[in-house]
Write a structure and sequence with these properties.
The chain has helices at 4-14, 27-34, 90-95, 116-125, 127-146, 148-151, and strands at 38-42, 47-49, 58-63, 65-72, 75-83, 87-88, 102-105, 109-114. By secondary structure, it is an alpha+beta fold. It starts with a helix and ends with a helix.
Length: 155
């Protein structure tokens, strides 16, 4: 039987974009990480992250697409479309600064949420998993920051 986190792992394996989550974890580490995640379903059009919010939650996208956008003087501007096998929320997760963009579901989404509190618990109990996760998230941020257009999409 396929575990719930395995579905996300499959999405990571199928995402060949530069925005894909790095599959650095071993199968047992994925299972361990999965025990710290909470499942979230998001209908199309619903806001997940609001620009300026103080929340530091990180989201792994199992299925669907999320639109990252900001309000400008000319209206709403889409910065990125993030697909299954990637993550959003990494900027505030690490920086502890307010969210830099709004993220809404472009399609119905299946997500996995990791709060800073649960990450702290994992770091205390499973430091090798927390380290590998941090390195993989750092790679996503570095890739996004290298692209001028996507740079502002680090949420």
């Amino acid at each position: 039987m396929t575990s719930p986190i395995q579905v996300f792992c499959d999405a990571v394996a199928q995402n060949t974009s530069d925005d894909a989550f790095a599959p650095a974890l071993q199968p047992a580490q994925w299972e361990m990480l999965g025990s710290y995640l909470q499942f979230v379903e998001l209908p199309a059009g619903q806001t997940l992250i609001g620009e300026g919010a103080q929340d530091r939650t990180l989201y792994f996208i199992e299925a669907g697409s999320l639109s990252v956008h900001r309000l400008s003087s000319s209206g709403q501007v889409q910065l990125a479309l993030v697909n299954a096998g990637s993550v959003v929320g990494e900027g505030a997760f690490f920086s502890r600064l307010p969210r830099t963009a709004t993220v809404t579901a472009a399609t119905a989404c299946r997500l996995w949420r990791l709060t800073p509190l649960r990450f702290g618990e994992m770091a205390n109990r499973q430091p090798s998993v927390a380290l590998e996760l941090s390195l993989a998230l750092g790679l996503i941020m570095a890739r996004r920051l290298r692209h001028k257009v996507r740079r502002v999409a680090v949420t």
